[in-house]
Design brief:
The complex is a heterodimer of chains A (about 110) and B (about 120).
Chain A (H helix, E strand, L loop, with lengths): L3 E4 L2 E5 L4 E7 L6 E6 L6 E6 L5 E4 L2 E5 L5 E6 L8 E7 L7 E2 L3 E6 L1
Parallel strand pairs in A: 2-11
Antiparallel strand pairs in A: 1-3, 3-8, 4-5, 4-9, 6-7, 7-8, 9-10, 9-11
Chain B lengths: L3 E4 L2 E4 L5 E7 L5 E7 L5 E9 L2 E4 L6 E3 L9 E3 L8 E8 L12 E2 L3 E5 L1
Parallel strand pairs in B: 2-11
Antiparallel strand pairs in B: 1-3, 3-8, 4-5, 4-9, 5-6, 7-8, 9-10, 9-11
The chains are: A mainly beta (about 110), B mainly beta (about 120).
């Protein structure tokens, strides 16, 4: 079945450093979504990418969808303690429901 | 707007007991999902529904059952609880235009933390 992998599993950064998480799918995705889950909370939608090679920005967050629509990345510039949480990518292919990646847990040291 | 409401928030079950996790949404979404999240892990799809009367298995359906008799409600049933079902369960919903391949943003409930002892 479809697999969506994320790397790294965990990253610890100093406040102000940059952070990037990568998402790779075994199959072509029609679209990809990114979610953030704060510790003890529930996933919250951040953004959706649809087009091949698409790049979208939200303040310090930059999201990219690969040309082959099989990979994606989320880059955070100058992390802040409010960025702490787990970031998930999610996509769907044959099955009509979203398949979530394994997630990248971000810890930010003040 | 309440969004997606899950009850209960916490529950402890003994091995072999059964229970129903409730999920309701008031956004008129056609798609609804159940995921489980084990500690420090990602979200695994248990079951999903694309509309009232239609349900489908996800990655980890064994030990669970669902029904979707209305657009609003999507309960998850555990028949014979096992320790392996200790997890946090999230219900989610989204709107999907007929004939289009794209999902829209999924809204999640607050989760049900279940422990089976």
């Amino acid at each position: 079945g479809q697999q969506v992998m994320q790397i790294p599993q965990y990253q610890h950064v100093q406040e102000g450093e940059d952070f990037t998480t990568y998402c790779n799918s075994s199959t072509t995705l029609s679209n990809i979504q990114w979610y953030k889950q704060r510790p003890g909370g529930h996933p919250v939608f951040l953004i959706q990418l649809v087009k091949s090679g698409e790049v979208k920005k939200q303040k310090r967050l930059t999201f990219q969808f690969g040309e082959a629509k099989k990979n994606s990345s989320l880059h955070i510039t100058a992390t802040q303690t409010t960025d702490v949480g787990t970031y998930f990518c999610a996509g769907n292919t044959g099955r009509r429901a979203l398949t979530f990646g394994s997630g990248t847990r971000l810890q930010v040291q003040p | 707007n309440a969004g997606v409401t899950q009850t209960p928030k916490f529950r402890i079950l003994k091995i072999g007991q059964s229970m129903t996790l409730q999920c309701a949404q008031d956004m008129n979404h056609n798609y609804m999902y159940w995921y489980r999240q084990d500690p420090g892990m990602g979200l695994k799809l248990i079951y999903y529904s694309v509309g009232a009367g239609i349900t489908d298995k996800g990655e980890v359906p064994n030990g669970y059952n669902v029904s979707r008799s209305t657009t609003e409600d999507f309960p998850l049933r555990l028949e014979l609880a096992a320790p392996s079902q200790t997890s946090v369960y999230f219900c989610a919903s989204s709107y999907h235009l007929l004939g289009q391949s794209l999902n829209t943003e999924a809204f999640f409930g607050q989760g049900t933390r279940l422990t089976v002892v």
